[in-house]
From TrEMBL:
Keywords, ordered alphabetically: Hydrolase
Domain Trehalase-like N-terminal: 4-126
Taxonomic lineage from the root: Bacteria, Bacillati, Actinomycetota, Actinomycetes, Kitasatosporales
Single GO molecular function: hydrolase activity
Protein name, per record: Glycoside hydrolase family 15 protein
Record InterPro entries: 6-hairpin_glycosidase_sf, 6hp_glycosidase-like_sf, GH15-like, Trehalase-like_N
Domain GH15-like per the UniProt entry, residue ranges: 225-593
Length: 619
């Protein structure tokens, strides 16, 4: 069965995450951390690769589902001919100050009548490959308890109803729920050499999780008209944070395809400097400073001593070695290969210097305490950037074709220098101001001379190319040129003409279908949702507010019923594609909502209070 990506709900604890299908099946869960091998991999294969379904007997789909308030606690209501039950499922949050082993808790509550229920769990460790050894215990805490062990990992399962290990490798429970009754299930990961974990207290854990997420969401400072969408995006971004180190994963999944049935399947369970820097910029602009401070510490540890060795991504703990390999799973809707690890880790992507320094600078502007190591890091990164900015690179889209002089990369090199110039000019830090001012002017000249097509009045994807690229929409946001500049307006209009899908969303760049295009890959892909949100921002900046509003509303309409977005939208099949939920799409949503909430007073004339939106243009 083709299970749509948007049919999944996301729950997480800030160290790992699970995807729960609408039909009650947990089809993805990596333990103990985001980047560990999965124990439920049905998402990328079949039930035989691991899943855990709790649902009324004989009932395919629930009536409704939602998150409880501003939390990542999922509540699903099932209505049958004999009664109604609510299933509440969540992972107790593990913030840095209160670490703990990962746990998945599911509570079934009878709302009306009587409902026959079943639970079927198949744990298969190592991405659906390793069958665990299973043991049962005599109700040590009045709960049914089972243990599944494979090598270093143990998963303990506790429930208030009787369970049994079936010969087919599943652990099952058949039980009846009457109005007012509850049944509790908990799955707990533990190192296999350690003793049994204490019995879970599901109801206390639920109350604590509710208080944690509600408290976190209540600190948001956004007050525009899209509060629900913004808070949901922020809460999801927070849940994509690996709390103990401050890293942020790009998404909790691997290999959800950018084209169903295609080869564009990548592992996103790592900390990209680009994605994390923009996520943190988003947090800083909505009142969340603590997360930015923690990420800055992770960044300092990950980058280590020599900026020449900067990688564009690291593991959530800061490791550098992320070897890419293909694993033996059928793939989501037969989309193969399924990849683990990511070869993009070894790429040169010059834009990351700009994104990192921009976010560090925004931290400074929004009151994050001055950190001398972070300032030194910026200076060192800049010294290295000065050596490499003229080189061709792999660009923001991590293309696997030949390196090029991507215009976006050069613009972001300009951003890196510009933000340091601003910092030094403000008197808050020292540095070679005159030299940096000259360098900034040199990069600007280089881009305008080599990356702009005078005949078509548009910037191009790379020097000497006639292709377009949606990353050029960021030019006015960065402050590289003002939105009133005819080259900016020309570029926005060219992208609208040439990179729009028939339903009005934006592609990253042209792909070549059956031959390898600029990205070196076969096949096509969906509209990249972040680019469509950038179009919203660009339209606001050039004063086309109604159009921006309309596009934003259409984009909100692509979210699933829980407010979640994958990386891309397949306009042809009208479905979400790519890893899910993806930070890139969600932070772009938040930034577009902020832009809509503080539009320019007149076209191209940003307001002073837009400072927190544009560190570049508004001086
Ligand atoms: O499209 C080819 C590339 O796709 C992935 O990169 C994308 O995701 C990254 C994480 O969100 C993002 O930072 C990047 O801008 C996107 O292009 C994949 O990770 C690459 O390996 C792949 O070449």
């Amino acid at each position: 069965m083709d299970r749509r990506i948007e049919d999944y709900a996301f729950i997480g604890d800030m160290q790992t995450a699970a995807l729960v299908h609408r039909d009650g099946s947990v089809d993805w869960l990596c333990l103990p951390t985001f980047d560990s091998p999965s124990v439920f991999s049905g998402l990328l294969g079949t039930d035989a690769h691991g899943m855990w379904r709790i649902a009324p007997v004989g009932q395919a789909l629930p009536r409704s589902r939602r998150y409880r308030g501003d939390t990542v606690i999922l509540e699903t209501e099932w209505v049958t001919s004999t009664g109604t039950v609510r299933i509440t499922e969540f992972m107790p949050p593990r913030p840095a100050e209160a670490p703990g082993v990962p746990q998945l808790i599911r509570i079934v509550r009878g709302v009306r009548g009587t409902v026959e229920m079943s639970s079927t769990m198949r744990l298969v460790f190592g991405y659906g490959q390793v069958i665990p050894r299973r043991t049962r215990f005599q109700r040590p805490f009045g709960l049914a308890r089972g243990l599944a062990v494979a090598g270093p990992d143990a998963v303990w399962s506790d429930s208030s109803v009787e369970t049994f290990d079936a010969p087919d490798g599943t652990t099952r429970a058949d039980f009846t729920i009457r109005e007012g009754e509850t049944a509790e299930f908990a799955l707990t990961w533990q190192h296999s050499h350690l003793p049994a974990p204490p019995a879970p207290d599901p109801h206390q854990a639920l109350a604590d999780a509710d208080a944690y997420w509600t408290g976190w969401a209540s600190r948001c400072t956004y007050t525009g008209q899209h509060t629900e969408a913004v808070i949901r995006a922020l809460v999801t971004l927070k849940a994509l944070t690996y709390a103990s180190t401050g890293a942020v994963v790009a998404a909790p999944t691997t290999s959800l395809p950018e084209e169903v049935g295609g080869e564009r399947n990548w592992d996103y369970r790592f900390g990209w400097l680009r994605d994390a820097a923009i996520t943190l910029a988003c947090f800083l602009r909505t009142g969340y400073r603590e997360e930015a401070g923690a990420w800055r510490e992770w960044l300092l540890r990950a980058v280590a001593g020599d900026p020449q060795q900067l990688q564009i991504m690291y593991s959530i703990t800061g490791q550098r070695d992320l070897p890419e390999r293909e694993i033996d799973l059928p793939g989501y809707a037969d989309s193969r290969p399924v990849r683990v690890g990511n070869a993009a880790a070894g790429q040169l992507q010059i834009d990351v210097y700009g994104e990192v320094i921009d976010t560090l600078h925004l931290g400074h502007l929004t009151g994050l305490d001055f950190h001398d190591d972070a300032h030194q890091l910026q200076l060192e990164l800049l010294r290295h950037l000065e050596k490499v900015w003229r080189d061709p690179d792999d660009g923001i889209w991590e293309v696997r074709g030949p390196r090029r002089h991507f215009v976006h990369s050069k613009v972001m090199a300009w951003v890196a220098v510009d933000r340091l110039v601003q910092l030094i000019e403000s008197g808050d830090a020292a540095g070679p101001l005159e030299h940096l001012t000259d360098l900034r002017a040199e990069i600007h000249r280089d881009v305008c001379e080599n990356g702009y097509d005078t005949e078509r009045n548009t910037f191009t994807q790379s020097y000497g190319s006639s292709e377009l690229d949606a990353s050029l929409l960021l030019i006015p946001q960065t402050g590289f040129l003002p939105p009133t500049d005819k080259r900016v307006i020309g570029t926005i209009e060219a992208i609208q003409r040439e990179l729009s899908t028939e339903d009005g969303f934006v592609l990253r760049y042209p792909t070549a279908g059956s031959s390898a295009g600029v990205d070196g890959l076969l096949g096509d892909e969906g509209a990249f949702l972040a680019c469509s949100f950038w179009m919203v921002e660009a339209l606001v900046m050039i004063g086309r507010l109604d159009e921006a509003d309309r596009l934003f509303d259409k984009l909100l309409g692509l979210r699933n019923d829980l407010g979640l977005l994958a990386e891309e939208w397949d306009s042809h099949h009208q479905r979400q594609v790519g890893n899910f939920p993806q930070a890139f799409s969600l932070f772009a949503l938040v930034l577009a909502a902020l832009r809509l909430a503080a539009p320019p007073v007149a076209a191209g004339v940003p307001r002073d209070d837009a400072l927190v939106l544009d560190t570049g243009y508004v001086r």
